[in-house]
Fold this sequence. Notes:
This protein is an alpha/beta fold. It has one domain: Ribonuclease Z/Hydroxyacylglutathione hydrolase-like (Metallo-beta-lactamase, Chain A), CATH 3.60.15. About 20% of the residues lie in helices and about 35% in strands. The protein contains 5 helices and 14 strands. It has a 6-stranded mixed sheet with strand order 1-2-3-4-5-6. Strands 7-8-9-10-13-14 form a 6-stranded mixed sheet. Strand 2 and strand 3 form a beta hairpin. The longest helix has 12 residues, at about 165-175. It is globular. The two termini are about 30 Å apart. The mean pLDDT is about 95.
Amino acid sequence: xxxxxxIDVHLPAGVAGPEPMDFDVRCFLVPHATGxxxxxxxxxxxxxxxxxxxxxxxxxWADVTDVVLTHHHPDHVGGLSEVMTxxxxxxxxxxxxxxxxxxxxxxxxxxxxxxxxxxATPGHTAGHLSLLFEQDALLLLGDLAGTQQDRLVRAPxxxxxxxxxxxxxxxxxxxxxxxxxxxxxxxxxxxxELWQMLxxxx
Length: 202
């Protein structure tokens, strides 16, 4: 069973546009035989929320064996330095076409990390990754799309490096074998909603 960690973010006017923005960003704790994988580290004040979720599931930072980063945007890696202080033995994985403030191991397309299959899904950033948790038929989509008001929507264009590449990655993701879809922004949804968004029937 996957454990989402939901962090609320407020951006004042002028940071990401003329209007203030409120949104959530999600990290995920994914269990495996000998510990937990942390997918993304959230913004710079996310560690308290992750610590709380670890305690809730009967774990602590010593159980975090690996950190997998979907991409390099600050709302996904802002907590990385503090996470590495708390889990110094954890291996950090990421796509090779993004840059990070710490050394990372290359997460290659098709590779499996503790039960998570790496899916290269460039477009939002050059090195963006999605992760297929085959045990639960669940896809962690990262920022290729998110949910707003119970609908799946594409990532905002101003934050997407290559929209055409992102669209190809979305279609690649839609062909994977999964039932549940967990974006990094917004509530979980399903495979059918991704199909609806791609085919304009949502």
